[in-house]
Each structure stands twice: as C-alpha cells, then as structure tokens.
Amino acid sequence: MLELNNIRTSYGQIEALKGISLRIDQGEIVCLIGSNGAGKSTALMTISGILRPKSGSITFIGSNISNMPPHSIVEMGISHVPEGRRIFSRLTVKENLEIGAYTKKSKFKNQNSKLKKQYEKIFEMFPVLKERQKQMGGTLSGGEQQMLAISRALMSGPKLLILDEPSLGLAPIIVSRIFRAIREINHEGVTILLVEQNAHAALNLSNRGYVLESGKITMHGMGKELLNDEQVKKAYLGE
Amino acid sequence: MLPIYTYLIFSVLKPLLFLLKSSVFVQQVINGLTVGGVYALIALGYTMVYGILELINFAHGEIYMLGAYLGIIFLGFFTAIGLTSFSLPLSLFLAFILSIIFCSSYGYTMEKIAYKPLRNAPRLSPLISAIGVSIFLQNYVMLTQGATDKVFPHIVENAGLEIGGVSVTYIQLFIITVSVLMMLSLHIFITRTRMGKAMRAVAQDKTMASLVGINIDTVISVTFVIGSGLAAVAGLMVASYYGLVNYSIGYIAGIKAFTAAVLGGIGSIPGAMFGGIFLGLIESLSAAYISPEYKDAYAFIILIIILLIKPSGLFGKSQEEKV
User: Fold this and answer.
1) Any idea which fold A28-37+69-236 has?
2) Cα distance from B46 to chain A (closest Cα, Å)?
C-alpha cells in the first residue's frame, strides 16, 4: 500500500534520514520504533509531504506521492496525527472535527449521511467528545485531546492512518484506551503506521515493526519477533 | 489588571459624563463612528493577514487608496454614460462591486508576486517587499492619475437628518450601516463557513492545517482577497465622505488602521473591529474637547498607553510558546 524507497531527508546540512526503505501492506499495523532523534517523526512528516525528501520515492497505492503537497496527500487517503496532538485550541471540539473533514468539500455541512455516520462512529468510540462538542479544543485534557486528534484524522476517511506518539504523556489507563481504539480502527479496515516510544505496547499491537537508528532502518520483522529480540530488548524494552 | 482598567475608564469617562447631555458629544460620537467604521474595515485587512502570515502588509493602505480612485473612475464613467441620473443606487452599487473586484485582484496579485516567493525567507524580507509594493502603488497611481487632488463626483447630496442640534448626513448613516454590515458578514463568514474555519485553523497552526488537507496557498489568497475587498469599500466610502482623493491618502489611513489593529490586538478580528471604532471615537472626541490640531497624535498617545498596560493589545492573546 505504502512503500518508501531509499528516502533521504535533511534539515539544511543535517541529514535526518539516510536512505530508509519500508513497506506497509493493506490492513496492517506497522510500528516504527527508535530512540529520540532517530528520525521517526521526520519519516512521518516526509510521508505526509510536510518535508520534502532529497532523494528516493514514496509510492501510495500505485502513485508517487513524494512531490505532492500535503493537502493532496490527505485527499489521496493518508491522515496524520502528529506528535503533541496539535489540536486547534481556539476551535471547538465540533469545529476541530469539521475541519478534519475539510477534504470532504460539499459534504462539509453535515448533511451527508456518510459524514453523519462518521460522527456517530467517533462519538461511539469516544463518548466524551460528544459531551464536549461545544468546548474549545484547548480546554480538553491530554487524553481527550489525543482522542480528538485521532478522531479529527479519521474524519477525512483515510485508508492509512499515521500516528506519532499517541501515548506520549498520558496516564496508563488512557494509553490502553487509545491502543484499544487503534485496534478498533484497524479492524474497520484502516491501515496503521504507528510511531511509539512505548515500544512494548506498540510491538504487541503491531503485525510488523521497523527499528530506526540515527536515520537508518537497522532491523525489521514481525512484532512478536522484535519483542523477543535480544538487541531490541536491551535498547528499547529496558530488559 | 482589572482595577487599573476600571480606574482608567472612569477617569476618562468622568469628565465626559458632564458633557453627555450636550449635543456636541452626540455629534462627535456620530462623527467618530463614521471614521471608526472605516478604520475598522481597513484594520481587518491588516489583522487577518497578520493572523495568517505574521506579516504586516504595509501595502494595505495603498489598496484602500486604489479603492477610492477606482470609485471616482467608475462613478465618473457612470455619470458620463448617464447611469447615475438613471439610478443612483444602482450606479453606487456597481461602483462598489467593481472596486471590490479590482482591489481584490490587486491584493491577490500582490501576494503572489511580492509575498509568496518570500514565504520561507527571514521575516524582515516580506516586510521590506511590502514597503516596496506600497511605494510602487503610490507612484503608479501618481503617474497615471496625477499628483493633484481629485474631486469625488458630487452625486450624493450633503443632506441629512437633524435631531436636537445633532446633524447626521446620509453619507454618515450609509458609512456606519455599511461598515456594520461588512463586519457582521465577515464575522459570519469566519465562524460559520468551511473556508472561514479553515482560515482560523491556518492562523493557529499552519502545519496541522495542511495535515488535515487544507491548501494553505488558497487560504492565504482568500485572506488577501477579502482584506482588499474590505479596503476597497473603505476607500470608496471615505472618498465620498471627504470628497477629495490623493495618491498619498493610503499612507496615513494605513498607519491609523494599523494602529487600530495593534490597539485591538493584532491578529484578532474582533480586536480590529473594536480598535478601529475606538480610534475613531478618540479622534473625534479629543478633537472636539481638547484641541483639533493634535487630532492625529491622540490616537498614538492612547496606543502607547494601552501597549504599556497590555502589550498584546486589548483583545490580543499573548503568544503561546510553540514546542
């Protein structure tokens, strides 16, 4: 579904991605683990078109997206929940969701039955968002903001959902709630690319995983395999 | 903070309370609202562009000046073909629409030529580019229209209403009504429509806005088009109010409107509306009660006072730290 081929991305003189290649198949949950500064977020931002790769190609369902502007990539079916959630704090919860459906043009006004269903699905998954519809996004707690960020990304009806550190700074009980939601979303047919510091939970959830170290993919395998790998255990699982 | 505000408001209002009954006061309030409405319309263009690009578009005053000139040109043309004597409201309406279209195209083009290529440049570069556009537009109008004052066609009579010693001309009523209507429609546009919500999203977080599929370039263009359209309306109204137009009127109006935007809190739309009206009221009241010679100075004195107390402006939000 998504294929990165020898992608290099730099910030000025500093090369953050030194030629990474990875593949995600339809219906999978794939995670990308690695320490701080390994280039995980850079990889995701490159996929979404916020950063331009210096070389290499990104193919999504048969078309090369490496030179497309971010808004066209969203229209193609890739939705990205960035690190730190980035809720529009001075927009209400409802407006945040509406803006998530921005690419759905004429259907914006909520009349469309498909969009209505989407709202219902989201409110079923996260009932708290329904209660807080009229509240400003900035007044939500961290966990609620993460739920809103994921829901906002789902509003565009993505085929691939990219999640950057969804568990960051959240209480364990909220984290398991979020991970449960990710699984539910995947069951509905959305392919997921997950970046996590919480490698244990991420690898448990994922079909496959990639390990990124200073801009290079150093390992990849099935989620369970990586969980039992001595090197991964030492470096990322704290065992 | 609150006690200081209350004290300030009361210390200003107290002497004025004595004057409240006088017709001079009411008269000055009406004059102030007229000018203030115009300042507010121009200030909105500054504040919207700043909100989205963090750029102070110094050429915005020139768009207002172009609006005034275009009004003269179109109304002159309509008079020549006899449309004004056929139907004055229709020709006024057409003049407004055409000026808005022309000014919006100027605004759109200006952004594409002078600002878009500098999107990722250091912040000073687009600012200098803006000053360049301003100088260019002034000289362009001076060369094509002449350096002398142009008289606005005297098509609207200076008549008005007179109630208890207070006179309100129809032009004043017109300006106040149109300003209020424009601000209301802008408010509805920003809060209710898809594009308005996208504009607010872009103002808050450009990267996130593009991650939800918003085309940032489109939103920026729309911002310039709307801001320029509002300035065109302001220019045409002022031209009909004062009757004289000059290629340099954009400068002082621009500075005043910019002051109004900063006073209200730059980037804040209600701030620009309030700031503009507030500035107009200060000017006309101080001209009446203190001395008209320093009319322009009072606005800046108040600006300095307000910025000393609340640097982000009356409605401004203090800058959030972005991580």
Assistant:
1) Rossmann fold (3.40.50)
2) 20
